[in-house]
Specification:
317 residues; Rossmann fold; 2 domains; six-stranded parallel β-sheet; six-stranded mixed β-sheet; 44% helix; 19% strand; elongated
């Protein structure tokens, strides 16, 4: 009987030790159940620019031991609103947003505000910036001005086609900067404007139609590099690419190679890596209760045949 009692006592002691060990150990996924969840919703991930921003944000978030959940609404504003609601329901503590439509995104921003979730806008402004804690963008107006100044310096006049994306404030500002600067010289005339969503596969047929309707076009100002590359593809199909100046904005490695080989005239280069890093840094300042700037605006740099070298082709700041 005594042996049975001692065995039972030892068994109880063993179970107590196991329970203590279990209680002191985190058995959740990756042994960290207290990781923050952050969300990011881009207008599209069919663009290397946004892929790099996402990569930089993710690196910072994961270095903090947290989780980034990224979503791609594929340029559909209704889907973007739905995805933001899904992130809220999932329990994210902050949302990075690159709006599909800078005005129509407001319902999504109000959903986040009502849930007490801070929002950081990236790459393009939202119409009501009181609904976001911070906006991290390039100086988009200046990017357009830089393209116009290069054109004025290297051409005496011409007929211009504009490829734009009016749902994105960044595009509006770039085109406006270009138009304001070019208006100072009456030898330049905008003869056509068309929407292309900033997408190569959309810009290409749009440019094909523009050149048929306006064969006098000899300058193209595109809101971004994918649109500029779409314009180039269309003009190459018509054997016109060598006769027309093409401007873009971004500075993707592919377009740098095209500038180096004199197929694209110039681009106003951005730094998606800096945008991503700064946006992520702002997120952790918000978590720590530190103040953040309402708007962070990064400079752009014109890249043209005059200042590009073979060593520049692979990099994207």
């Amino acid at each position: 009987m005594q042996k049975i009692f001692l065995a039972a006592l030892l068994g109880i002691s063993f179970l107590a030790m196991e329970f203590y060990h279990f209680a002191k150990t985190d058995y959740s996924a990756r042994q960290n159940e207290h990781r923050r969840k952050l969300g990011a919703v881009y207008m599209t991930l069919n663009n290397p620019f946004y892929e790099i921003i996402d990569e930089e944000i993710r690196t910072t978030v994961e270095n903090h031991g947290d989780v980034l959940i990224s979503r791609d609404p594929a340029l559909n504003i209704d889907k973007q609103v739905e995805e933001i609601q899904e992130l809220i329901d999932y329990g994210v503590e902050l949302i990075f947003i690159n709006p599909v439509d800078w005005t129509e995104v407001e319902p999504a921003l109000k959903l986040a505000r009502n849930a007490g979730i801070p929002v950081i806008a990236i790459d393009t402004n939202v119409e009501d910036d009181s609904l976001v804690h911070c906006t991290v963008i390039s100086d988009n107006y200046s990017a357009g001005v830089q393209c116009a100044e290069h054109l004025l310096k290297n051409s005496s006049g011409g007929k211009i086609a504009i490829l734009k994306h009016s749902q994105a404030r960044s595009s509006i500002d770039r085109i406006q900067g270009f138009l304001d600067r070019i208006a100072e010289n009456k030898n330049f005339e905008v003869v056509a404007e068309a929407e292309c969503l900033g997408q190569l596969e959309v810009a290409m047929p749009v440019m094909e139609n523009l050149i048929k309707t306006h064969p006098e076009i000899n300058i193209v100002m595109a809101l971004n590099d994918p649109a500029a590359m779409g314009a180039l593809a269309a003009l190459q199909n018509e054997n016109l690419s060598g006769d027309i100046k093409i401007y873009g904005v971004d500075g993707v490695p592919e377009i740098k190679e095209m500038i180096f080989s004199h197929r694209i005239t110039a681009t106003a280069g951005q730094s998606p890596r800096q945008i991503g890093k700064l946006a992520a840094a702002c997120a952790y300042k918000i978590f720590n209760g530190e103040p953040v700037e309402k708007i962070i605006k990064l400079p752009t740099k014109l890249i043209s045949a005059e200042n590009i070298s073979a060593t520049d082709l692979e990099s994207w700041d």
